[in-house]
């Protein structure tokens, strides 16, 4: 079977598909180009009409339905990353199979959040911010710890599901959930924020969920509680969050994502002492990205054997994520 690597950022291909993996892949199929192709290079490649499968990752070009028509033998695209709504529809409308490594990308996010939850339940972030001299030793009341405490999870996608399993295996906490289908029910959200000592956001990146989490919810949190966001910044009314944190200095917000990203220079999120910003670190980084390439290759092997894809994407699945007002 004839394949290519495709990305408008070719360096990402080498990061996600390391040399050893590319060697195994080259033993399983024929690559029509020794180097990754960009979208423009693909459209002018002399062998483009022979391409049967594509392996891609971040930097996947947004080709039109007609441009995909320049690859008449293309059967499947294996995307070694997460969200696909930006480019998927023209592919799927032509009947081309699409697989995404979104479940594999959920693993490091869940591990990241697990660490933050444990530290939050110990009041680590409050304590370390205060302990800058001998006078700061034990100035912050200790956190409740994990035993029997309540953790709230927003959403029920891959990250929330995997995190739920990690929490059940490693901590003796009580778990509360608001699934995505109930996310716009403010009563359900309010109960979660009122009862959980840590709330972690894993709602999907959909236009109907923008600015869903506002000041009232944060003000309702328990004394000393923590809000964690590794979902998307646009789901949070960040102005309302900032007001709540100013009124409630006992609260802590751990924000790995914001909107926009990074926040503008005058954002109060930079100056509030009870905010910890990180630079979108939770997803696959470093060697973790290789898990995505492995997942894409495993999906190809299933496809080659005539088995159903484990991580296939349908038009129905991407529809709620389309039509965004932001990039």
What brief labels describe this structure?
alpha/beta, 327 residues, six-stranded parallel beta sheet, five-stranded parallel beta sheet
Helix amount: 25-40%
Task: Enumerate how many helices there are, as a single number.
Answer: 13
Order of helices and strands: EHHEHEHEHEHHEHEHEHEHEEHH
Report the end-to-end length measured between terminal Cα atoms: 35 Å
Judged by helices, strands and strand pairing, the structural class is: alpha/beta
Widest sheet: strand order? 7-6-8-9-10-11
Low-pLDDT runs of 5+ residues are: none
Radius of gyration: 22 Å
Shape: elongated
Quaternary structure classification: single chain
Count of distinct strands = 11
Mean pLDDT: 96
β-strand amount? 5-15%
Largest sheet: 6 strands, parallel
Question: Please, could you describe this protein's structure?
Answer:
The model has no long low-confidence stretch (mean pLDDT 96). Helix 8 (158-170) links the parallel strand 6 and strand 7. Helix 6 (102-121) packs across helix 8. The chain has a 6-stranded parallel β-sheet with strand order 7-6-8-9-10-11, with helices on both faces. It has a 5-stranded parallel β-sheet with strand order 2-1-3-4-5. Helices cover 36% and strands 13% of the residues. It is α/β, with parallel strands linked by helices. The radius of gyration is 22 Å and the shape is elongated.
